[in-house]
Amino acid sequence: MTPDESWIPVLITLPTLVPLGAAALSLLLGRSPRFQRTVSIAAISVAFIASCLLLYLTERHGTFAVAIGGWGDKGFGNGPLGITLVVDQLAALMLVVSTIVLLCVVVYAIGQGIRDGTAQQPTSIFLPTYLILTAGVCNAFLAGDLFNLYVSFEILLTASYVLLTLGASAERVRAGASYVMVSMVSSLIFLAGIAFAYATTGTLNLAEMAVRLDDVPDGTRNALFAVLLVAFGIKAAVFPLSTWLPDSYPTAPAPVTAVFAGLLTKVGVYAIVRAHSLLFPGGSLDTIMLVAGLLTMLVGIFGAIAQSDIKRLLSFTLVSHIGYMIFGIALSSDLGMSAAIYYVAHHILVQTTLFLVVGLIERQAGSASLRRLGGLIASPLLAVLFLVPALNLGGIPPFSGFIGKVALLEAGTQDGSVLAWILVAGSVITSLLTLYVMARIWTKGFWRPRADAPEGDLADKGPSALIDESSDDAAFSDREDVGRMPVMMVLPTMAMVAAGLVLTLWAGPIFDFTDSAATDVVDRSVYVDAVLGAGGVR
Predict the structure, then answer these.
(1) Which of 145, 86, 44, 55 is nearest to 345 (CA)?
(2) How far apart are CA 200 and CA 208, in angstroms?
(3) pTM value?
(4) FRET pair for 7, CA 20 to 30 Å: which of 50, 191, 436, 519?
C-alpha cells in the first residue's frame, strides 16, 4: 500500500462507526423527528458511499485489512491481538447491496408515516435501533476475527428484537419471544464454537486460525466446523433449522419485515461462506450441506404453496431460496461460489422489494391475505412493482433470478456427482413452484375481482370491515390512509425494483466481478496474506 492510501483504514471503519454515532445522536434528537430522520438518512448514505469506494478499491487493488486499537502483533503465539477488519471483493459487494437496502427501507419507513408515540413505529425508538442494526450488519461483513463476528451478530440481533416487537401487539410479542429463544440458542452454540476454536488453535483471528487449523486432526476440524455450521445455519434459516422464520418475520411492520428478509439471513449465509472456504476448505461436510440445501429448497417452497397470507408465503420462499445459496457454496468450486455470490446479491434485492410491495398492498387494500384481496390490477403502478420482482424471483428469463439459477445449474452439472444432479433437479422443481406461487398471488390478488374472493364481500363495507381483530391487520382499523400509497413509500420501492434490474442489465460485468470475488474466496491465501502478510494495513 502506498503512503497516499493511508486513509483506507478510516474508510473501512466508516460503515460501522458512522451508523453507531448517528444512533447515539438520533437518541439525543428524539424530540426533533425531522432532524432525527435527516441524521438517519445521512448516516446510511455515508455508509453506502464508503461501501462503493471500498468496492472500487478492492476490485482495483485487492483485499485490505486493518487492526483496530494499535495493539499490533502482541497476541498469544505472535498473532494479532485486537479487532481486525478485512474487506475483500465479497465483503465490499455485500456492503454495497446491504446499504442500498438499508437506505431504501429507512426512506420507505419514514414515508409510511412514522409518528412519535404511535402504536406501530415510534420514531424515537425505531430510527436509533435501525441504525444500530445497520452497524451490526456492516460490521459482520467486515469482521476479521470470530469473536468480532459474534459481537456483530449480537448487535444486529439485539436491535432486531426491538424492531420485531414494535407496537407490542400480542402477536408480535409471541413471535418476538420465539425469535429471542431461537437466537439465544444460536448464540450459545456460536459461543461454544468460539471457545472450542480458541482451545484448538489459540487464536480467534480468522486468517491465523485458517493457518493453524491445517495442523489440527481431521476429526477435531470436522467437529468444530459442525458446531459453527449449526450456529450459522440457524441464523441463515437452513433446514431443519429454519422453522422459526415463517412464524417471526411476517408479524413485524412492513419495513422491518423487508430488511429482515433481505439481510439477516444473508449475514448467516456470509458466515457460512467464510467458515467453509477460509477455515475448513476441503469439502469434509459438503455432502451434508448439499442435502441440507436440497431439503431447504423443497420444504420451503412446499410450505409457501400452503399459505394464504402473502407475508407468510414470501417468508417460506425466503427459506426455500437459501437452499440455492447453500447449493453453490457446497459445490466447492469457483463457478459454484461465483453463482452463489451473485444469487445472494440478487435475492437480497428481490426479496426486500417484494416485502416492500406487500406493505403497499396493505396500504392499498387494508390486508395482505389472499382470501380478502382482489382487483389490485386497478392500480397499474402497484401491479408493475409486484410483477417485476415476482418474475425475477420465479426465474423467468432474462431476469437476474434466471441468470443466477442457470449459473448454479451449470456449476452442478460440472460437478457431475449423483448428488449434484439431484440438486440440479431439485433447483428446477423449486424454481417452477416459485413461479407457481408468484402466479397465484398475481391471479388472486390482482386479476380476480375482489368480490370473488372468499372474504371479498367485506370490501363493500369499508376498510374497517376487513379487519380481523385477532390478526395484525387490526392496525389498519383506525387509519384514514388505507387506499393511498405515500410517494415516499413508492419511490424507494421503485428504486429497489431498479436495483434488481441492474443485476440483469449488467449481468456480464457483475458476473466478472463475482468470478473474481469467488476466486479470492476459494483461494484463501489472498485473505490470509492481506491480514498476516505485507498486504495488511497496520
Answers:
(1) 55
(2) 12
(3) 0.89
(4) 519
